[in-house]
Amino acid sequence: MFVSKVYPECTTQDCNEKKDKEVESNKVKARIITGLMYRHWNEWRDDKISHLFMMDVASGDAVDLTLGLKSDVPPIALGSD
Fold first, then answer.
1. Strand, coil or helix: 60
2. Across the 81 residues of the chain, what is the mean pLDDT of every consecutive 10-residue run?
């Protein structure tokens, strides 16, 4: 089990990688804040949210157990990885 940040509208790793490249290559670095939780302590929040995954160690395949969820898992920062 592990937690990883993903774009909530993406259902594959390829989609997440494509969106990361689009954000990185975009010359505009301004932010439009639409929610209250835009920064938590020393970390800016972006369009990604934390999802819970389960990985098969033998095959390396990972399954998003919280696919479709539009909120973070765990819901709050617990202070460590």
1. coil
2. 92 92 92 81 84 94 90 74 60
Per-position DSSP letters for 16-51, written without gaps between them: HHHHHHHHHH-S-------SS-SEETTEE--S-EEE
Do residues 6 and 64 touch, judged by C-beta distance below 8 A? yes
Q: Contact 55/2 with Cβ under 8 angstroms?
A: yes
Whether the model clears a pTM of 0.85, i.e. scores above it, the answer is no
Which amino acid is it at 41? W
φ/ψ of 13, rounded to 5, equals -65, -35
